[in-house]
Write a structure and sequence with these properties.
Length: 256
């Protein structure tokens, strides 16, 4: 049985989403900080990207790696309560309080090895719901397909993104069969690394669209890479360079 219909997202979109990866750290700002996120939005990014861990008291915090600090003084964010973390490291709640919800937000939910991510996802969703009705609908949770099937049951509105590789797609029987599995799981988009979107695989975006799914590409750092991916018809791209990101997505938004 098919999951939630992603077709209206395709019909209603005004242009590709430009996700500022970790707040676009190519600007030499500390990544995953409120100033970096705010500057990316002020510069025209239509989306932000980050990673969430649960602090020891169950509070979602935004950081790419599990630990922070210099090599010999590394601290584990999962071993400390949120109020013991440095001020530059934002909680998800502070993120929404400072920035609002008028943008798309792509989030990788991470957990220590051997622990299920479901509790962390539930905590993230609780914060998003508290931020307002728009927050869950503009939240894109990224993960493997097996996890996404479970997360779909936790919230009907959150968008689910399958971050995977072409090897996994081929192993599942090809893009047509894989797209059907994504739809059945209630997934909204397939996310591949930019280098996997090459000429022989370019029609994959059209196959996904035919199934009511979206096509995302991450690690798009050069203007030529962004132009190539958007030329293939991708619906979202991720970049550290917000200036390149905004310029490229604007070109593909005109006339839509």
């Amino acid at each position: 049985m098919d999951g939630p219909d992603a077709g209206p997202e395709l019909a209603a979109r005004r242009g590709p989403i430009g996700f500022a990866h970790r707040g676009a750290p190519a600007w030499y700002q500390r990544e995953n900080t409120l100033p970096a996120f705010a500057r990316a939005l002020a510069s025209g990014a239509t989306g932000l990207e980050s990673d969430a861990w649960l602090a020891a008291d169950g509070v979602p915090v935004l950081l790419h790696d599990r630990a922070y600090g210099p090599p010999r003084l590394r601290r584990d964010v999962t071993a400390l309560p949120a109020d013991a973390l440095p001020g530059w490291l934002p909680t998800l709640s502070a993120f929404y309080q400072a920035l609002g919800t008028d943008f798309e937000f792509s989030l990788d939910v991470k957990t220590p090895a051997g622990r299920a991510a479901d509790a962390a996802v539930a905590a993230v969703l609780a914060v998003a719901r508290a931020a307002g009705a728009d927050a869950p609908r503009r939240l894109w949770l990224c993960g493997p397909l097996g996890s996404l099937r479970v997360w779909r049951e936790l919230d009907p509105d959150v968008r689910l993104v399958n971050s995977t590789s072409m090897r996994e797609v081929r192993a599942a029987g090809g893009i047509g069969r894989y797209a059907h599995e994504l739809r059945a799981a209630g997934v909204a988009a397939l996310n591949l690394r930019s280098r996997e979107w090459v000429a022989p695989t370019a029609p994959i975006a059209q196959v996904l669209h035919d199934h009511g799914l979206l096509a995302f590409g991450w690690d798009a750092q050069r203007p030529t890479t962004l132009a190539r991916l958007l030329g293939y018809g991708l619906d979202a791209v991720y970049s550290d360079h917000v200036d390149h990101l905004v310029t490229a997505t604007a070109k593909h938004t005109v006339g839509r």
